[in-house]
Amino acid sequence: MHPAHRQSTIEPFPLPAQSDFTVLIVDDEYINRFLLQNIVEGIGYTTRKAENGAAALELVAETPPDLILLDIMMPDINGYELCRRLKGNPATANIPVIFVTALTDTANLIKGFAVGAEDYIGKPINEGEVRARVQTHLKLKAAVDQIRKYNEELEQVVAESSRELVRSERQAAFGQLIQGIVHNLKGPLTSIRGSAQACQITVKTLVGELDAMAQRAPDAVPARLTDLSRAATKAAELVDTASRRLTEMINALMYKSSSDQRDKEEQLDLNAIVGEELAFLQADLHFKHHVRKAITLAQEPLPILAVAPEIAQVITNLVSNALDATHAAAEPTITITTARRCGAAWLTVADNGSGIASEHLGRIFDPFFTTKPRRQMGATPENGPIGTGLGLYMCMRSVKALGGDIQVDSAVGKGTTFRVKIPLALQPATEEGCDGDNSPVLHQ
After folding, report:
1. What is each CA distance from 248 to 46, 245, 254, 271, 316, in whole angstroms?
2. Buried b / exposed e across 417-440, counting CB within 10 Å, b at 16+?
3. Separation of alpha carbons 369 and 390, rounded Å
4. CA distance 101 to 366
5. If we measure between CA atoms, which residue out of 314, 331, 334 comes closest to residue 322?
6. What is the pLDDT of residues 110-152, one digit of tens each?
7. Fewer CB within 10 A of the terminal residue: the chain, N end or C end?
8. Neighbours of 241 (CB within 10 A)
9. Which residues pair with residue 50 across a beta bridge?
10. Which tens digit of pLDDT belongs to each residue from 165-191?
11. 9 falls in which pLDDT band (50, 70, 90)?
12. Which residue has the higher pLDDT, 231 or 32?
């Protein structure tokens, strides 16, 4: 026997609520307008009425309807001409027009379709026919509108993806340029450090000999010579310290540029990645000097399996969002913590910024949704933070790919907290307060 298969059903395209649709009835005969109004409103749709073409054009310009029931034979502007004008106007071209007419011969029907009408209803009016055609064309319009919206969003996705690809290529090229520059800097810097250390040794020896001479004959060594030698010692120490720090910065840049070009999953320490990204963000002087940072990293390593640039981008996006949220705060504060809990590594990024309205929380991970002004809408960074609506979407996508999740809590005027959960690469023994691999449930 063959196993029983359940037949899948395809749901029809969802029709919006009937009250959301408006049907414009255009007819110079009162009785026809009255009959059509009763039928259409009996289905549940809203109606508007016009007794001639000029009045219809005014109503359409004021509030475009979802469907027009149009008589052909009218005294001022006949139905053919009115339909032609509507279809010739980009603002009204997508409104379906159904002719309601007694002229049902082939020549008149062809003429009606030629000027752009979608359908026709014959007179005398049949209630069942009106109901069926009105419902059908409103449903079709809803489907076309939704498809048009999908197409617009798809075009946005393609455009943003193209920009992201170009940006990635530029970043890769920039990374290679950085590696070349810093590699060429390391030679002279090594010479500077060597010379500074040699200078320290020489000056230290000189100071020692001057001290010995002063002990043998106090008046033999001028006081100014002693002061100069000690000043030289301090200067040599400063050069050595500065060159050592510069070497550390160059090594960090080389590591950063090389790690950004990795595209394979590997075992990483979340603590180390957080530290590297925060060090890199110190290049932002506002972040470095004007934002209070409370950073608490787990004392133990947090090994995760991830692609280095992707998890680094998650951290950067969350910190950048926190930075944007606090741009108007009197004392901007960003809190960053990591922890190990229930078989997972946890990263928390919190701010005391503007917060997110409750009606927006359910959409913040949607692509292209942003509460910030968009650049294409005239916003510029000088006027405050701007966004594309892709940052949090990319964060969620990257974290989900690792088997993790993101939780967000926010209150307007109080700030926002993001909690990122990523499974540990090396599962520890069951921790206190956890039942096996069960982790706290996250809610988007």
Report:
1. 71, 5, 10, 19, 21
2. bbbbbbbbbeeeeeeeeeeeeebe
3. 8
4. 47
5. 334
6. 888 899 999 989 888 899 999 999 988 888 888 888 887 777 7
7. N
8. 11
9. 26
10. 655 555 555 556 666 666 667 677 777
11. very low
12. 32
Cα separation values, 153 from 140, 426, 431, Å: 20, 40, 45
> In which band, very low, low, confident or very high, does the pLDDT at 11 lie, cut at 50, 70 and 90?
very low
Q: Rounded CA gap, 162 and 173, in Å?
A: 17
pLDDT band at 381 (very low <50, low <70, confident <90, very high): very low
Region at 195 (left for phi over 0; alpha for psi -120 to 50; beta for the rest): alpha
Cβ count near 353 (within 10 Å):
23
Encoded amino acid at 77, one letter: I
Residues 372, 381: Cα–Cα separation, whole Å: 11
Confidence of residue 282 (pLDDT cuts 50, 70, 90): confident
Helix or strand or coil: residue 286? Answer: helix
Considering Cα of 165, then 167, then 173, then 179, what sign does the dihedral take? negative
Which residue from 345, 346, 352, 369 is spatially nearest to 424, judged by alpha carbons? Answer: 345
Q: What residue type is assigned to position 248 of the chain? A: E
Q: Which two tokens stand for residue 427?
A: 């599962």
Query: How far is the C-alpha of 434 from the C-alpha of 293, rounded, in Å?
Result: 30
Token pair belonging to 92 = 């009204």
